[in-house]
Structure formats: C-alpha cells, structure tokens
Write a structure and sequence with these properties.
The protein has eight helices and no strands. It has about 220 residues and is mostly helical. It is globular.
C-alpha cells in the first residue's frame, strides 16, 4: 500500500476539482442537515455509495478511480446498506454509553453526578478503544467485500471478515495505521478555521483509495485454511 499515492492520485484526474467540490458539498450537507429529522442521512448514504464505487474502481484498475457525481439516487441506494451496517456495528457502544452516562446526567452538577461521570468514563474508554478498533476494522473489511457483492449480509459474515483481517496481519496493521494517520491529520486540519471543511472533501477519497489498495494486496495472499 502507498499512502502517498492515496493522497496524490486525486490530482491526476482532470475533473478532480468538480468531483472534490461536489463531494465537499455532500459532506457539508450531511453535517448541517443531520439535526433536521436526520435529513443528512440521505447525503451520508450518497457519500458512502460514492466511496463503494471508488473502491470498486480501484479494484478494477481504473486509472482515475474517483466516480462522477452523475447519479445521486444510485449512489444513495448503494450507500444505504453500509450505513445500516455501521449503525448496527456501533449500536452496542451507543447503548452502553446511554446506560453509563444517563445516570450521571440525571444527577446533574453535583458530587454524585461528577462521581458517576468519572466512573462511566473509566469504564467506557477502554471499551471504546478495544471494541471501536475491532468494529471499525471489520466494518472496513465488510465495505471492501460489499463493493463486489452489494449485499447487506456481507457485513455480518464475521468469520469471512475475520479471515480477511488475519490473512496478513502485517498488511492489516499497516492499513489500520494509515487510516489512523489520515484520521489524525484530518482532525488536526479541522481545528484550523477554514481547514475544517477539508475532511468533508478529502476523507472519503483518501480512505476509499486506501481500502482499494488494501483489497488488491489482500487478493494475492492465500486464504487461511
């Protein structure tokens, strides 16, 4: 895998300005419209579908893998299953957070509330760290397979997804490390005023290309017996 390639391939596309600009608009719409009866989910699904198409284009060896934004409805339909899978994967963390932090919120600004909040944080942090990393890794494996199958159940074939993760642990660790580096860089950029719009435009094309590269390298590895 080549992290630099996932950053620079964007600019090799003669239509990169239009594609990235629309991707930015979709990302911002998702963020700003989410509080309005979850209207932002439409744009989340579309961007997810766009990413699936990007992964597929990388797997098929297209020289300019970023898809055009010419079929919004089709991208939205393609992106609904990954979005549903993401909710299911992280639902346990959401439920656990509610169980742990609601009592602290009800206790309000008091010693009891502070004690409950502190205890909840001590419990939830290691769970988030371990479960969050594992769930994210499996979800990414599911997304890679979904790019070929377009079936929701692909995300829940855990033995197959685990086999993908374990087929080459060094490769998997490198892939996860690259995702972490990209996420950290985007977080730092977000904290700098106008730079806050950059993640909405670039996270999907970078992570999607990395996923495609990972899948291509994984295809050369023998399956575990």
């Amino acid at each position: 895998m080549d992290l630099v390639k996932s950053l620079t391939y964007i600019f090799d596309d003669e239509d990169w300005i239009v594609k990235i600009a629309i991707n930015l608009g979709v990302g911002l719409a998702a963020a700003f419209l989410m509080p309005v009866l979850f209207a932002g989910l439409v744009f989340v699904a579309a961007q997810s579908g766009w990413t699936v198409m990007l992964i597929r284009n990388v797997l098929n060896g297209k020289p300019h893998p970023m898809p055009k934004w010419d079929d919004f409805g089709g991208k939205m339909r393609l992106g609904v299953p990954p979005m549903i899978a993401g909710v299911v994967y992280f639902l346990p963390l959401i439920i656990l957070s509610c169980i742990l932090f609601v009592p602290a919120a009800l206790a309000g600004d008091s010693d009891a509330g502070s004690l409950l909040a502190g205890g909840a944080t001590c419990i939830i942090f290691p769970v988030f760290l371990v479960y969050g990393v594992l769930a994210s890794a499996l979800l990414n494996m599911g997304l890679i397979r979904y790019a070929s199958t377009e079936k929701l159940n692909t995300f829940f074939e855990f033995s197959t997804l685990w086999d993908m993760l374990m087929r080459d642990t060094n490769l998997t660790i490198r892939y996860i490390a690259y995702l972490f580096v990209v996420g950290l860089a985007m977080s730092l950029i977000s904290s700098t005023g106008i730079g806050g719009i950059v993640p909405s435009a670039l996270t999907a094309p970078i992570n999607g290309h990395l996923a495609g590269q990972f899948a291509l390298e994984l295809e050369t590895k023998p399956k575990r017996s």
